[in-house]
Amino acid sequence: MASISTFPALHLPFPNSSPVPRRSFSLPSSTNFTLSAASFRHSPVQGRSLPRFLKQVRAVEEDASVPELGVETEASSPSPSDPPAVTVPVSPSDVLTMFFQAEGTLNESAIPSVTEALEQTEGITGLKVQVNEGIASVVLTKQTTIQSTGVASSLIETIQGAGFKLQTLNLSFEDEEEVFV
């Protein structure tokens, strides 16, 4: 299970005359992602300890072993004892609908090329590419699964490759799970 950790504020022990402003890092409260606790391992960097205000942190998956730093690991060549890849069917509860809205700039003459590039992508519905008052927008929905990775980034690469210059991206997801009453 992958995890994300956030810290309420970054406090550095530097004088206030530092040219770098102090900022805090936080996720917006409307984020639709589930955050879970992570397993962390703290260790010194091969014989040197880090300054007191810095710690080396490695995030790992639950129930995964982490090799010690400085220990050589075996080459990642496949061995006969490695199990073959397993294909798991997608259950209906894993299906998501992604709502994709990108805004930016685009020449009106490039609208057909962006539209054509996106129409070749499987699972896209409700496609609308338009330019209003100098602001271009691409709006679509796409069927995807929880296991799929890189879906939004591949759509971004597609529209940028067709001439769209991205400024704002809004993504939201809807679970296709049926509700029993």
UniProtKB/TrEMBL annotation:
Span list, region Disordered: 1-27, 64-87
GO cellular component, one term: chloroplast
Top-level taxon of the source organism: Eukaryota
Low complexity compositional bias, start-end: 72-87
Protein name per Swiss-Prot or TrEMBL: Heavy-metal-associated domain-containing protein
Organism the protein comes from: Cucumis melo var. makuwa (Oriental melon)
